[in-house]
Structures are given as structure tokens and as C-alpha cells.
Specification:
By secondary structure, the chain is α/β, with parallel strands linked by helices. The protein has helices at residues 3-9, 21-29, 45-62, 75-78, 92-99, 112-123, 149-158, 171-179, 189-192, 197-215; strands spanning 12-16, 34-37, 65-69, 82-85, 104-109, 129-132, 163-166, 185-187. Helix 7 links the parallel strand 6 (129-132) and strand 7.
Length: 218
């Protein structure tokens, strides 16, 4: 798989804790292009490696990208396609050194200055994509204030790096995020909490692609 070409074409990114394989396979089959395993609360390496194997197998079967959260040191051991780090996690230069030149490095951004800095890091080959948000307040990021749609607009207008809007994005909010310029989104609860994760993923993808189909964006 050409990871960067796949990333450029990606539209729907799922961030998930440990998940039942059948639910993950359903989401991937319905149009999730990237899945990030994010296990918080100090999980030990053995647990992380075990859950990563589940995600790796499902992502491989679906020809999707698999990203590990926060742990560039385990990316190779997990056979992940890349790592995602936050502003207060491993520095992107250090993450790049750990994962090597061929895997992906993603970075969370919360302000226009952080978006602009990440775009410079993209030009330097340190960052491959960014998360932009949280657009809306979300319990997955307690204490992190919502940035609203203005940051999505800034990223859509000024950034060359592939951008995934994230934070409280679901059926009711996706159209506004899309219309603010987001071509790619990342979601958590909209799929992980859904009764039918496949149907949820398909519905999100349809809304996201609606504008591209209307205006003919490739």
C-alpha cells in the first residue's frame, strides 16, 4: 500500500478504543479509510499489542490504514501504518525518527498558529496529516474547549497538509463541518457508540461526499 496516496484519498477516519472485531470490520466495509487505536488509562504494552493485532488484521483485510495513538515507539512492533501525536505528546521530529520515513505521522492542532506550524512541518516531511479541533466539545477530550468552525475554515483555506476535522462530529453536525471546507473528518462516538457501526459509517461518508459529488471535486 502506498500509505501517503491512500491518506490523500481518505475521507473518513475512525478513532476507537479496543473494539469488537465484527464491529470494526463492519465500519471498515462501509467506508472507514483510516482507523486509529487509542487506548488511554495507562494500558500496558502487552494489552496494546494484543488490541493492535485485532485492528491490524481488520485494516489489512479492508485495505485501510492503521494508526496507533501516542506510541511511536510501538508502531513497528504493531505493524501500524503510522502514529498520531498531540501537542503535548512526543514531538513530531522525534516521532518521525522513531517510525522512519515510510510511515505516517499525524498531529493534533487546536489553533491557527498550530495549523500553520504543522503545515511547515508537512513541507519538511515531518508531518503527514493533522487533526483540526475539537470542532465541538466532546467527552473524549475533557477540558479541551471547542474551537468551532473557524479553525476548520482556516485549515481549509491555508493548509496544504491533509486535514481531518474532529470533535463532536456526527450526523447532526457533519454537514456544517463539510460546508466549512472539511473534506476529511475523524469521528469516535458517532461510530463506536452506534448500534450498527456499518450503517453509521456509511451515512457519515455519504454526507461527507455529497459536496464533492455536487461540485466535482476529485
Amino acid at each position: 500500500m502506498d500509505r501517503r496516496a491512500h491518506l490523500q484519498a481518505a475521507r473518513l477516519y475512525l478513532v476507537t478504543p479496543a473494539i469488537a472485531p465484527d464491529r470494526l470490520r463492519a465500519a471498515l466495509a462501509a467506508g472507514v479509510d483510516v482507523v486509529q487505536l487509542r487506548i488511554k488509562d495507562g494500558a500496558d504494552d502487552a494489552t496494546l499489542l494484543r488490541e493492535a493485532a485485532v485492528v491490524r488484521a481488520a485494516a489489512t483485510a479492508a485495505a485501510a490504514l492503521f494508526v496507533l495513538n501516542d506510541r511511536p515507539d510501538l508502531v513497528v512492533a504493531c505493524d501500524a501504518d503510522g502514529v498520531h501525536v498531540g501537542q503535548d505528546d512526543t514531538a513530531v521530529a522525534d516521532a518521525r525518527a522513531l517510525v522512519g520515513p515510510d510511515r505516517l505521522v499525524g498531529l493534533s492542532t487546536h489553533t491557527p498558529a498550530q495549523v500553520d506550524a504543522a503545515d511547515a512541518a508537512f513541507a519538511a516531511g515531518l508531518v503527514d496529516y493533522i487533526g483540526v479541533g475539537p470542532v465541538h466539545a466532546t467527552p473524549t477530550k475533557p477540558g479541551r474547549p471547542a474551537v468551532g468552525l473557524d479553525l476548520v475554515r482556516h485549515a481549509a483555506t491555508h493548509a496544504s497538509v491533509p486535514c481531518f476535522a474532529i470533535g463532536g462530529i456526527e450526523d447532526a453536525t457533519l454537514a456544517a463541518v463539510r460546508d466549512a471546507g472539511a473534506r476529511r473528518v475523524a469521528v469516535v462516538r458517532a461510530i463506536t457508540d452506534a448500534e450498527d457501526p456499518g450503517a453509521a459509517a456509511a451515512a457519515l461518508r455519504a454526507v461527507l461526499l455529497e459536496r464533492e459529488q455536487t461540485v466535482g471535486i476529485a
